[in-house]
Write a structure and sequence with these properties.
The complex is a heterodimer of chains A (about 110) and B (about 110).
Chain A (H helix, E strand, L loop, with lengths): L4 E3 L2 E4 L5 E6 L6 E7 L6 E7 L2 E5 L7 E4 L6 E5 L8 E8 L8 E2 L3 E5 L1
Parallel strand pairs in A: 2-11
Antiparallel strand pairs in A: 1-3, 3-8, 4-5, 4-9, 5-6, 7-8, 9-10, 9-11
Chain B lengths: L8 E5 L4 E6 L9 E6 L6 E6 L4 E2 L4 E4 L5 E6 L8 E6 L14 E6 L1
Parallel strand pairs in B: 1-9
Antiparallel strand pairs in B: 2-7, 3-4, 3-8, 5-6, 6-7, 8-9
Classes of the chains: A mainly beta (about 110), B mainly beta (about 110).
Chain lengths: ~110, ~110
Amino acid sequence: EPEVTQTPSHQVTQMGQEVILRCVPISNHLYFYWYRQILGQKVEFLVSFYNNEISEKSEIFDDQFSVERPDGSNFTLKIRSTKLEDSAMYFCASSLQGSTGELFFGEGSRLTVL
Amino acid sequence: DAKTTQPNSMESNEEEPVHLPCNHSTISGTDYIHWYRQLPSQGPEYVIHGLTSNVNNRMASLAIAEDRKSSTLILHRATLRDAAVYYCILPLWAGTALIFGKGTTLSVSS
């Protein structure tokens, strides 16, 4: 069964460093998403991406965040200057039909900012 | 997304059916009802979705009230692996993101 894969599974970084989280969505999917989940809290939407541009973003997704689909297969989330509060599990998701269809989520990348 | 209301938690015994309710009284005629779940230490996982008719798949059944103001996710025989947070979500349209609430935390005892 096709799946969304994310790397790294766990990254530890120092505050102020840049981090790139990578995702390989399911190959024929058209909609891409990043969510995050701080430990013990609910899953929070960050950004959605469709037709090579951001289609929606939350207030969490400020200028420190960016997304890119550099080569038609990878979908990356970059955090320019990490803060302690960026420590969370980051989930990538993809969908063929958007949110009215089925979203497939990856296993997540755990980011720890020291 | 249209507002949904779910109980914070529910408990079940293994091998018994579980009925997880969701109220969505402000649902519009074209809103699909989606259910996702999140197992411990994993990403959310699609369970089922429907519009008007009851739906079945290998994981669960979805019973939708005739007025569509509520729905029930049915796990026919709960297993320990079904212990998870279950989310009822009504996405506004394909281009908007799924917004997760607090969901219902299901505990399953052996």
